[in-house]
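Sanity check

After download, print the first record. It should look like this:
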Amino acid sequence: MKKLSFITLVLFITTGFAQKIDLINAPKNPVAYNYKKEHFDLKGPVYSFKNKVFSKAGLLIFDNVFGGNSFYYDANGRLTHTSEGNEFKYGSNGYIESYTYASLGIKTTQYFYNDKGLLVAEKFDKASKTNDYEYTYDSQDRVIKSYRNDNNYTTYAYEKRGDDLIIQENDVRDGLATLKTLKYTKGIQVSYDDVLMSTYNKMDAYGNWTKDYSPVIFYDDLKSNGNVFTMIYTKQNNYTIDKLMDCEFFLNGKQTDAIYRRSSKANEVIIYNPFDEKYYIIKNAVDDSRSGQVQAFTEVIISTPTYLEFIESSSYKLVHRGAEYQNNLYLRSGSLVVRTYQNNYIVYDKFADKTFFAPYDPDENFNIYGLKNVEGTNIIYIRKNKENGFIAFDRGKPVESTYTFGYDGNDGVLYNGQTPEYYLPQLKTSSVGVVHPGRKYNASTDKRAGTDYSNTATSTSSTSACITGNCTEGFGEIKTQHATLTGFFSGGKANGYGKEVYSDGTGYYQGEFVSGERHGFGMYTWNSDQSYYIGQWKEGQLHGYGYLKKGTQVLQAGYYENGKLTRNLLSQDYINQRAVGNCIGDCQNGFGYYQFSNNDKYVGFFTNGQFNHIGAYTWVSGDVFIGNIRNSEFSGQGILYYKSLMTTYYGNLSNATRQGMGVYYNKSGNIESKGYWDKGILKTSF
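Expected structure tokens:
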């Protein structure tokens, strides 16, 4: 076993490009963004833990959530952006100065530090400052207060007992205080409220708490060649909509969640192997006859690290090294460019900053194409015919028609006015209909010539208007530049229930609006993968209690602030579907699933054993409630689905009865009635 002195050496870290971290004396000090292994309290040559993969330098490079997220760094090891479109900027001190992210709009958080490299404030770009954070430290550089407002703050008190550090954490949320006692030994948390970290059953040689079903995998565990991925499918007694949820995956015999995996037709399972950069398939992997068997991934289905998948309605998904790149809303909108030319796919992604290509047969009905990367350049060309016809692309965009053309021997040169800008090697002798690499013109090595080349460009415009009903005081439908919103209006703004559908097909929201912003209870669905958020909103952002699902799988659950999950309430028991009595998860003070003896079911949040905040209740009849809950009472904004009628009500409720403004949809999904309801009866029709 390695000595603890090694562990101690890595627990205090500060560099020219890193915020100060002291896990021995100040383990609760905040950091701007977690992207190093020490931010996750990991030690040793960590390759992966849970969903995350780290480089040998200890930098987070992949997170297997929401289709996979890749992390990009500059030459100094500073995190610059992610494949999801998040961007980071740095101040003169080398610390993260701002973080731009997508949360139903483009949001930016700014970070401020003192001269010791300690984070002292986080400021959001909303006009309201109630969600900003301020941090106070003692003379030993330990955080003693995290302050948002007078009703939401946390204080910390420290006591040193030999090698042990005892922290009293008083967390005040909405005026209610919760006191916790945390115990750390040499920077490692060993207990919580005097209870040992029992969810972790052992400590490894480097000082990481671990467990059999979620171990840390080290670079020492990897083989120089021939790393083996396997899986075990376990048949469930109850029907599962996505059998991938019933699978466990292993790397060289150790369980891991840090690999890209997907289910396919005919019970197939596909994974990405990052060591040989290929995608592997097991056919009939989740057939019930294979339940409990160890199955190895040996058959290659895609021999490149990148593929393009046609989804539907002319939309595409790029998967590069196990991370999905799509034109989702906001930051990634328009980032993925897909073009076809002479039976070639031309693909460029802004955040990967790479150009890919693949030939295709128009007579074949494939929906997945393995792509090749154009190494070292984002400039390509394709020759149209044996004469001078060709087209050039720069980062997926055709070169403008204003450019002129000439030869330098067999090589082509494109001019912007009188200035040579692009160089196309071997253009004159290149094969027709094949993608070839180009580059920027180099004045020191390239020559000049001249003839002609042309292209075309297009432009679009949009308008906004109330297209039906009363969009000032009543019920109407308004079309904006990006979406169509149908719902109740007051003072010319959406107020009450509304449905907002984005014109680019990326997703839609159904729920409560206040003064034109999503505020209260609502659901947002991403069409690209049919994942959806159920929960509370504030001023257009995920804010409050909520959970994120894909199919029947809950991906996140907890408390959100300004679009970010700040309190995770999704327990390991829920993730692993471990039942204790009638409960899966935390049915006392957390997030869980509870089944009653009469087969009624509830999934959502609990407080002191009662349904609270947000949840979904399914009666044995098949009727369903989803929405706001207060001490087990289904009141406030919500949804009622009536199975026997196949109809749905969206709007205000009182004890699961229509009360207030709401809309009733028939089984075809069309509005049947709308207006003010009293005790379940429509009193005023709009």
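If your output differs, re-run the checksum step. Summary of this record's structure: Residues 4-220 form one domain.
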